[in-house]
Model the fold of this input.
Amino acid sequence: MTTAMQFLLENIRKHVTLTADDEQKLVAACQMRTVKRKQFFLQEGDVQRYLVFVVEGCLRSYSVDENGFEHILQFAPPGWWIGDMRSMLEQSPASLNIDAVDDSAVILISIPELERLYKEIPTFDRFFRILSERSIATHQHRLIDSLSLTAKERYTSFCRQYPSLITCLPQKYVASYIGITPEFLSKMLKEPIKK
Done:
């Protein structure tokens, strides 16, 4: 079994226990793919046909408003899942773009394979219920933060959520994620810390 598949199984084992037979079925349903830096995995208007698990690199999901400004919803470093959930669930045109921040390696599970795995491996279905619940809670918390926290507090929250990305992401991506301009972020980071 490849290192990438071992990494996926370790991620799943943090939440549920799969039998050896279940693990074999899961591995057989997976595909490996590389996504080059700035290459799209999904573009707005396309239909998301795969669930995506990041093994190496980093992906991001974002929308672009009518003025051309990007609004980043999520970063997916190694060990994270990413997707346009509405597009995936309804097999409808995506409202998000997903591209690679860095050269990345991902594991894909097609939607038909995913549905088959849910039926054949009830524990796998439970795993995704756990992930979905945590994702909803995280997105609710982020919405509350965006409505009630200052830019500096949102930056601090970003640093807690994505500690491995703080030093490697372009500032414009961080600014987009926390909802401010890159210029304001740069100015804010240069301000001395108040004691």
